[in-house]
Amino acid sequence: MDTLSGIVALLQPHDCVAAGFDAADDWSIQFERHVGLKCNSVIKGGCWITVDGGKPVWLDAGDCVILPHGLPFIMSARSVSHGTDAHEIYAPVAHGGTASYGGGGEFFMAGSRFLLSGPAAEMLLPSLPPILVVKGGERGEVLAWALNRIARELQEPEPGSALTIAHLSHLILVQALRVFLAQDHSGVTGWLAALSDLNISRAVAAIHAEPSRSWTVAGLAAEAGLSRTIFAERFRQITGRTPLGYLTQWRMLLAMDRLLASDAALARIASDVGYSSESAFAAAFKRETGHSPRRYAREARNGTSRSALRRYRTSND
After folding, report:
1. How far apart are CA 290 and CA 284, in angstroms?
2. How do residues 234-270 score in pLDDT, each as one tens digit?
3. E strand or H helix at 220, and its extent?
4. Residue 87 host element (H or E)
5. What is the CATH number that goes with domain 3-182?
6. Residues near 185 by Cβ (< 8 Å), separated by ≥ 6?
7. Region 309-316: what's the mean pLDDT?
8. DSSP state at residue 126
9. Fewer Cβ in 10 A, N or C end of the chain?
10. DSSP secondary structure code for residue 127 in this structure
11. How confident is the model at residue 317 (pLDDT cuts 50, 70, 90)?
12. Taking a C-beta distance cutoff of 8 angstroms, is the pair 179, 173 a contact?
């Protein structure tokens, strides 16, 4: 599995909802903060989008916009600073249906929102910008198709609809991250910025391919094709952490996923993520997360470990 696929697999998109929006005249809608990742595709016409009071961005037909942080935003026929509450417009519409404003006919947009869960979401999403715009073209067409397909599956459920929607959500997420990787990353650090660097991405790919291997900085530098000193400095500049710190973080994410998704013995999980004994793994896990593996699994299943994940993310930023 390639590096990006491995990361997306841990994000676990779920609970997708979708709706269309058909508008005319001088319309403007204000969306409050939301949970999850939103993706909107302009099918007909064009509009402005302003995220959290930032600079307005124009969207043409065929363009898609991804909003990963749940920030408030405004979509409008002309650039404005306020709009009608989105809840008033969308509340009467069932999932998969279409909301109408001003009679419709001049502008149409398909949108979806899905939740991302797991510790990977806690650490990956902060590295994304507040808005990702996918211009019309092959990737824009893929996103528009996926959004429309989700709306259809919600509107007209068939056998296998739940699995279809889950896979389409994965597709939307991968396309969004591909767009991010193709953009300029000046001043941006994190996992995805590392994937866009030719040398550092090789080292990251090696870590993801063999997380249980006893990696050294020198060994990872060789994978990247750089000297040890240059590699260590460049890795930290791009990812915001040391190579071995990144290795530990990835191991912990894999361990967290295994603890929640399987009944594997702790010793087996420890071995799979590169620790020679259960006690060494438990000590490293507690050092990184503040919890023992068993306590983390218990509290995560009970929905009480979110604060621990926040502490882990903050301590490793």
Report:
1. 10
2. 999 998 899 999 999 999 999 998 998 888 899 999 9
3. helix 217-224
4. helix 86-90
5. 2.60.120.280
6. 192, 193, 196
7. 46
8. G
9. N
10. G
11. very low
12. no
Quick one: how far is CA 126 from the chain centroid?
A: 9
Q: Could you identify the residue written with the tokens 């399987």?
A: 262
Place of tokens 């002309």: 78
Enumerate the domain spans of the chain. 3-182, 191-316
DSSP string for 223-254? HHTS-HHHHHHHHHHHHSS-HHHHHHHHHHHH
Residue 55 has pLDDT above 90, yes or no: yes
pLDDT of residue 200: 96
The label of the residue with tokens 């896979």 reads 167
Q: Tokens 């004994």 belong to which residue?
A: 277
User: Cβ contacts of residue 265 below 8 Å, gap of 6+?
Assistant: none
Model confidence band, residue 149 (pLDDT cutoffs 50, 70, 90) = confident
The three-state DSSP-derived secondary structure of 34-81 is CCCEEEEEEEECCEEEEECCCCCEEECCCCEEEECCCCCEEEECCCCC
- Burial environment of residue 243 by CB neighbours within 10 A (0 to 12, 13 to 18, 19 or more): buried
> Is 258 or 95 the better-scoring residue by pLDDT?
258
Residue located via tokens 């092959």? 138
Asked if 3-182 and 191-316 have one fold, the answer is: no
CATH superfamily entry for domain 191-316: Homeodomain-like (1.10.10.60)
Three-state DSSP class for residue 3: helix
DSSP 130-169: S-EEE-TTHHHHHHHHHHHHHHHHHHS--TTHHHHHHHHH
Give the CA-trace dihedral at 155, 160, 166, 168, to 10 degrees: -70
Q: Which residues contact 222 (CB under 8 A, 6 or more apart)?
A: none
